[in-house]
Amino acid sequence: MSSNLIIPTMVHHYYLFIEKQPKDAYLVYLCKEAQRAGQTTAIFTRTISETRRVSRLLDALKIDTISLHCDLSPSARAASLDKLRRKEYHAIVTTDVAAALDPIPKVGRIINFSLTWKINHETYAQRISNIGHAGSSGQAISFVTQYDLDNYMCMERFLDVPFTKYNVDDDIAMSSCRGQVEEAASEDPSLKDTDYCLVRSQRESERV
Questions:
Q1: Which of the four, 90, 92, 103, 152, has the lowest number of CB atoms within 10 Å?
Q2: How many CB atoms are closer than 10 A to CB 156?
């Protein structure tokens, strides 16, 4: 591990292995779980378009959510973060660049929604630095799809911290939550996860 890389000791590291297509359903499951517990969640995505889509999807499903990305003005980003500090929202969806420009308030849980496109170890450490309040423990949950295995295994070896499988109720995630996601996407097609086809084509081209 890099000598400059600091991993918070009070963070519990989890992985959730899922197929790419029901990824949104598991995100909704985890966000609702955290919202019921009064916990704030930070969701890290890889692009501005994904940040916008995920934020709008969660909003449509009654999960109080704000987004943070570099297309927002500095004043808009500051206003969003202020609302998060006042607990007016239970979730924030952000890119790594935006979170670096405007450090987010401490949260109880982060979700690495995207591990694709070669997330590096420093990026992971930066993400989890947002966890914890006054010495309290927190959770970092990484979504691992069939396209993320190499990145995940490399990251786990480099960080040298234990990752545990996060237990979810698959029946609820794959029935109730998936049904809610599909209904929202049928009403607004822009909420559909079109990145699945993009990532699949990229991986297939890499194998050629």
A1: 103
A2: 18
